[in-house]
């Protein structure tokens, strides 16, 4: 997620640079639509820079995104601006066949041919360790980890 967030921040910075050049070289600042566009850019820029800070990671722990009760796994995913979360997706643990773990992403395949994907602020090792900690030994034996 860090690599993607850096690319997004760079792209948004380039757009801001272009807006600032337009603001300086033309009379666009006199138009209300340009002021609104610039305000929107400031909001998006702040969101993209925030996602690169340690505060973002400390506010978005894995425990907030992957939860379990006796029979279910609850998945939340990051989306949108700042700390907006999507979910939960409820999964019956017994129906999980395979879990694919990537940097910043968790993909769960169930036996009814459904697939759930969650974008998470964690590396592959952290996700693997966390999942193996919350699943029981018998559940770990029935689930294939990629």
Write a structural description.
The protein has helices at residues 2-25, 32-50, 54-59, 62-65, 124-134, 137-142, and strands at residues 66-68, 72-78, 85-92, 96-102, 105-110, 115-119, 144-145. It is of the alpha+beta class. The strands form 2 sheets. Strands 6-5-4-7 form a 4-stranded mixed beta sheet. Strands 1-2-3 form a 3-stranded antiparallel beta sheet. Helix 1 packs antiparallel against helix 2 (32-50).
Summary tags:
146 residues, alpha+beta, 4-stranded mixed sheet, 3-stranded antiparallel sheet, 6 helices, 7 strands, 26% strand, elongated
Question: How do the helices and strands line up, and which of them pair or pack?
Answer:
Elements: H1 2-25, H2 32-50, H3 54-59, H4 62-65, E1 66-68, E2 72-78, E3 85-92, E4 96-102, E5 105-110, E6 115-119, H5 124-134, H6 137-142, E7 144-145
Parallel strand pairs: 4-7
Antiparallel strand pairs: 1-2, 2-3, 4-5, 5-6
Helix pairs in contact: 1-2
N to C succession of SSEs:
HHHHEEEEEEHHE
Q: What is the tally of helical segments?
A: 6
Principal-axes geometry comes out as elongated
Helix content: 40-55%
- Mean pLDDT comes to 86
- SSE-based structural type: alpha+beta
Q: Segments where pLDDT lies below 50 for 5+ residues? A: none
In short:
The chain has helices at 2-25, 32-50, 54-59, 62-65, 124-134, 137-142, and strands at residues 66-68, 72-78, 85-92, 96-102, 105-110, 115-119, 144-145. By secondary structure, the protein is of the alpha+beta class.
